[in-house]
Amino acid sequence: MEMENLKNSLAPLTAEEILAFIASNYGDRAVFSTSFGIEDQVITHILAQQVQPEVAIFTLETGRLFPETYAVWNRTLERYQLPIKAYYPNTTAVEAMVTHKGPSSFYESVDNRKECCYIRKIEPLKRAVAGYKIWITGIRAEQSPNREDMESVEWDADNAVIKVHPLFHWSLADVEQFLKLHNIPYNRLHDRGFPSIGCQPCTRAVQPGEDFRAGRWWWEDTSKKECGLHSKTK
User: Fold this and answer.
1) Among 98, 36, 100, which Cα is nearest to 66's?
2) Is it the case that residue 232 has pLDDT exceeding 90?
3) Own/partner pairs for 10-14, CB < 8 Å, 24+ apart?
4) Which of 47, 127, 144, 156 has the fewest CB atoms inside 10 Å of its own CB, making it the most exposed?
5) Which residue has the higher pLDDT, 231 or 176?
6) Are 41 and 76 in contact (CB under 8 A)?
7) How does pLDDT run across 72-89, given as a tens digit for each residue?
8) What is the Cα gyration radius of the chain?
9) Closest to 153 measured CA to CA, from 4, 41, 31
């Protein structure tokens, strides 16, 4: 019942109104995950400038991020003065994986890559969203076929939380226009052909005409282009 009520309440609202509604109705029971991509930077800006919420913000520090990601992280803290909690992988799990398989095992098989994603991203995420009612993300529907099958409000059974995607119906042009209008700090890798930015060893620039997520885990079949953070669950 709560899911349907929330869907109906948020359906006619703009992104700014969605975030204001979440902040007003859920407050510190809501959390926003940022990877400092352009969509996440839009949401951070709205939260900081227009809503002033109790909504918590976190990021996953996988230990394999680009220097440019750390740079925009610092600029974001300086600009908005909002705390962004960093969640790290379990040290023992990382040590065991690297000891037994080496630092680049993710290139060797899909199973190895998913193991690395689980240790560095999925398990820390579970800790980050545990106990919250609402998880806010920067997902847009056009980002990948898997995401087109999602809804702007959905139940994440794996993490027992309601996911809300305020920018779900935004186009890339909408995001870029908002960034320019508000002079929002962003990752400069976006200017160098990186539409989707994750861990440095697993991300490359996308060539003209390639799919949005072609630069993520490019050595794998295109049907496996999700790490598991945002796979559709019921």
Assistant:
1) 36
2) no
3) 10/152, 10/153, 10/164, 11/152
4) 127
5) 176
6) yes
7) 999 999 999 999 999 999
8) 17
9) 4
What is the dotted CATH code of the domain comprising 2-224?
A: 3.40.50.620
Structure confidence by residue, pLDDT tens digits, 24-51:
999 999 999 999 999 999 999 999 987 6
Give the number of C-alpha atoms closer than 13 A to the C-alpha of residue 20, restricted to the C-beta side.
Answer: 8
Q: How confident is the model at residue 222 (pLDDT cuts 50, 70, 90)?
A: low
Helical residues (DSSP H) of 137-206, grouped into ranges: 145-148, 172-182
Please enumerate in sequence order all residues whose Cβ is within 8 A of that of 164, keeping only pairs 6 or more positions apart, or say none.
6, 10, 18, 22, 134, 135, 136, 137, 152, 153
Residue type, 164: V
Alpha carbon distance 9, 6 (integer Å): 5
Residue located via tokens 């407050």: 27
Residues that are catalytic: 227
Domain boundaries, the chain: 2-224
- Number of residues written out for the chain: 234
